[in-house]
Amino acid sequence: MAKGARNLLVVFLIVGIALIFWGVQEYGLFGNKLVRSLGGGISNKVMILWISGGALTLLGALGLFKK
Fold first, then answer.
1. Can you give the three-state secondary structure of 1-67, one letter per residue?
2. Better-predicted residue by pLDDT, 1 or 52
3. Residue 64 and residue 67: Cα distance in Å, rounded?
4. Distance (Å, whole) CA 44 – CA 42
5. What is the pLDDT at residue 67?
6. Backbone conformation region of residue 39, classed left if phi is above 0, alpha if psi is from -120 to 50, else beta
7. Around 52, how many Cα atoms within 13 Å sit in the side-chain half-sphere?
8. Average pLDDT, the chain
9. pLDDT, tens digit, for every residue of 14-23?
10. What is the pLDDT of residues 38-48, one digit of tens each?
11. Domain residue extents for the chain
């Protein structure tokens, strides 16, 4: 694997993990808790952060650890 491709996969992994943590932080904010307690679901922003973070983390991890 080329060094540039490996570096890109590491960036994907790090950014993906950061997006997941950011989504967890957004999920726990007061405004989001208030909406959920009033019968609303999870906000679209949180879902986008979780899905994109998971996809980038998976892409980076699979690229780095495949044989």
1. CCHHHHHHHHHHHHHHHHHHHHHHHHHCCHHHHHHHHCCCCCCHHHHHHHHHHHHHHHHHHHHHHCC
2. 52
3. 9
4. 7
5. 58
6. left
7. 11
8. 88
9. 999 999 999 9
10. 877 788 888 99
11. 9-65
